[in-house]
């Protein structure tokens, strides 16, 4: 996942978070690849930008793990596209990875928002 070069407001995602975002988007229903990228961008209020190279590598990885499946169909503009859906195994991963992410962000918040300084070592 990369940031778009002409927009400093966008943030590159940590490794592994793209998979979680894709799973979350697909939990809403079948979506083609371009739609996944657009929804991530829109739902992040234009902060995240998914480049196509990263997106399709991630989709293939998730399909190989049997977390998603793909089926050919027609997009809203009548173009042939692969539509991705979440599998039961993918839904389980979404729950697990969401829980991990919430723990991580809570811990980061505790550290970043904490007001205590380092405690001195007393003998």
Q: Give a count of the beta strands, DSSP E runs of length 2 or more.
A: 3
* Helix content estimate: 40-55%
The main pleated sheet reads as: 3 strands, antiparallel
Q: Find the CATH superfamily.
A: Winged helix-like DNA-binding domain superfamily/Winged helix DNA-binding domain
CATH hierarchy, class = Mainly Alpha
Overall geometric form: elongated
| Discrete helix count | 4
Q: Give the CA-CA distance, first to last residue.
A: 48 Å
CATH level-3 fold name: Arc Repressor Mutant, subunit A
Structural domain tally: 1
Please characterize this protein's 3D structure.
This protein is an alpha+beta fold and 123 residues long. 49% of the residues lie in helices and 13% in strands. It has helices at residues 17-26, 33-43, 52-64, 88-113; strands at residues 31-32, 68-74, 80-86. The chain has a 3-stranded antiparallel beta sheet with strand order 1-3-2. A hairpin with a 5-residue loop joins strand 2 (68-74) and strand 3. The longest helix is centred in the C-terminal third of the chain and has 26 residues, at 88-113. The N and C termini lie far apart (48 Å).
Salient structural properties:
single chain; 123 residues; alpha+beta; Arc Repressor Mutant, subunit A; three-stranded antiparallel beta sheet; 13% strand
In short, what is this structure?
The protein contains four helices and three strands, in the order H-E-H-H-E-E-H. The chain is an alpha+beta fold and 123 residues long.
């Amino acid at each position: 996942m990369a940031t778009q070069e002409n927009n400093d407001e966008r943030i590159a995602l940590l490794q592994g978070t793209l998979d979680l975002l894709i799973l979350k988007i697909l939990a809403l229903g079948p979506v083609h690849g371009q739609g996944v990228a657009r929804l991530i961008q829109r739902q992040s209020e234009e902060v995240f930008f998914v480049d196509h190279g990263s997106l399709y590598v991630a989709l293939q990885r998730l399909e190989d793990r049997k977390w998603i499946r793909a089926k050919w169909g027609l997009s809203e503009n009548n173009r042939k596209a692969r539509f991705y859906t979440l599998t039961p195994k993918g839904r389980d991963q979404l729950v697990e990875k969401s829980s991990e992410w919430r723990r991580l962000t809570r811990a980061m918040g505790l550290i970043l928002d904490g007001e205590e300084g380092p405690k001195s070592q007393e003998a």
